[in-house]
C-alpha cells in the first residue's frame, strides 16, 4: 500500500503532491488579455511620447524657418540695393536689368531655404516610427506565440 499526500490548491480541490494545479482556460485567457491590455497601453504611451517629441521638433523647425525668412527679407533689402548699384557701375548696365539680376539671385536663394524647411516638415519625418516598429514586432511575436505547432 502506497501513501500519497495531498494538498489543497487555491480552488479547494486537492491534487497529488508534486503536481502543479492546472489553470483553467478562463484564467489563461484573462491573463493573456491583461498582458495584451498592458502591451497596448504601453504602445499608446510610447506613441504619445514620440508624437510629442516630433511636434517639438516640428515647432523648432518652423521657428527656424520663420526666423530664416525674416533674415532673408532684411538681407534681401540691404544686399539688393548694394548689388544693383555694383552691377550698374561694374558692367555699365541700367538699374532695371541690375535689379532683375539681383531679384533672380535672391529668389533662388530664398527658394532653396524654403524647400529645405519644407522637407524637414514632411509627414514621414514626423511619423512615430519607433512605435510602428514596436507594434510590428509585437504583432509578429503574438503570431509566433499563438501559432499552433
Automatic annotation (TrEMBL):
Transmembrane annotation, as ranges: 62-84, 90-114
UniProt cross-references to Pfam families, sorted A to Z: Phage_holin_3_6 (PF07332)
UniProt keyword annotations, A-Z: Membrane, Transmembrane, Transmembrane helix
Source domain of life: Bacteria
Stretches for region Disordered: 1-22
Name by which UniProt lists this protein: Phage holin family protein
Record organism: Histidinibacterium aquaticum
Amino acid at each position: 500500500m502506497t501513501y500519497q499526500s495531498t494538498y489543497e490548491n487555491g480552488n479547494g480541490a486537492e491534487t497529488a503532491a508534486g503536481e502543479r494545479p492546472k489553470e483553467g482556460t478562463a484564467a489563461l485567457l484573462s491573463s493573456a488579455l491583461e498582458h495584451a491590455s498592458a502591451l497596448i497601453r504601453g504602445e499608446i504611451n510610447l506613441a504619445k511620447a514620440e508624437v510629442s517629441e516630433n511636434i517639438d521638433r516640428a515647432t523648432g523647425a518652423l521657428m527656424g524657418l520663420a526666423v530664416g525668412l525674416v533674415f532673408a527679407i532684411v538681407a534681401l533689402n540691404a544686399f539688393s540695393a548694394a548689388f544693383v548699384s555694383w552691377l550698374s557701375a561694374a558692367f555699365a548696365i541700367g538699374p532695371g536689368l541690375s535689379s532683375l539680376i539681383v531679384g533672380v539671385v535672391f529668389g533662388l536663394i530664398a527658394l532653396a531655404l524654403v524647400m529645405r524647411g519644407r522637407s524637414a516638415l514632411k509627414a514621414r519625418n514626423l511619423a512615430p516610427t519607433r512605435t510602428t516598429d514596436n507594434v510590428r514586432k509585437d504583432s509578429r511575436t503574438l503570431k509566433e506565440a499563438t501559432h499552433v505547432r
